[in-house]
């Protein structure tokens, strides 16, 4: 696919392929072992429930996953017994259970995020008066929200931990387009599918990418969410690749040019402080 607009990109530093059968650690090859089919099927069931817009019957889960109906039913019943899946007797439907939230909290607790980065996020949010969100960069160029703090605005309509952000939309999407190593073809192909309140023309979007690279942060003044101004900065690992994206947001009427400059400066300083700390985190 060719693109009319030229986007300069730098190759993304190679990351380990988690689907591979082995990976190198400290110069030696570590064998990951043979995948367990039952676990893969179970995860497929959980993902199907997660993606669904409403609770699902066993037959719907089987159709979505490609599993035999009896296999899907047995997996669902096992997960129900263990608390990972909830069952509605009246409708005979299944949904993701509360236990999954407990497991997700365990990820945050053991990752080091709550000890290393969250205190800094609180400090930043209070100092400049914004809501601050931290997202993990995925190999698919999606962003997964890890945490958010601050009372800049009512956040429940915009943020929920574990939620994936659409590719390349808003301030965080500009950071991804500018620093993730995504190809121009991928950016243009995905751009038409992104979510915006007011989507700028792609030519203008390309200009914003270049501006983001130049000044080191991205700005979205109400195009992604009506009435909401967002600023985003990249956080790189010491090895070079983009690992996290930090986004600050508040109502646009509070975000004057002076305020935007103040917030951006504080966020860039935050990113500089946090980059050396990423080695202490376990976010894979």
Description:
The chain has 284 residues and is α+β, with helices and mostly antiparallel strands. It has two domains: 37-100, Arc Repressor Mutant, subunit A; 112-279, Beta-Lactamase (2-Layer Sandwich), CATH 3.30.450.40. The protein has ten helices and ten strands. It has helices at residues 37-51, 58-65, 69-82, 99-111, 113-116, 118-128, 170-179, 184-191, 202-215, 257-274, and strands at residues 22-25, 28-31, 85-88, 93-96, 131-137, 143-149, 164-165, 218-225, 228-236, 242-251. The strands form three sheets. A six-stranded antiparallel β-sheet has the order 7-6-5-10-9-8, with helices on both faces. Strands 1-2 form a two-stranded antiparallel sheet. The protein is globular and about 60 Å long. Mean pLDDT is 84; it is low at 1-6 and 8-29. Keywords: DNA-binding, Transcription, Transcription regulation. Residues 1-29 are annotated as: Disordered. One of its GO terms (molecular function) is DNA-binding transcription factor activity. This is IclR family transcriptional regulator.
Outline:
It comes from Bordetella flabilis. It contains ten helices and ten strands.
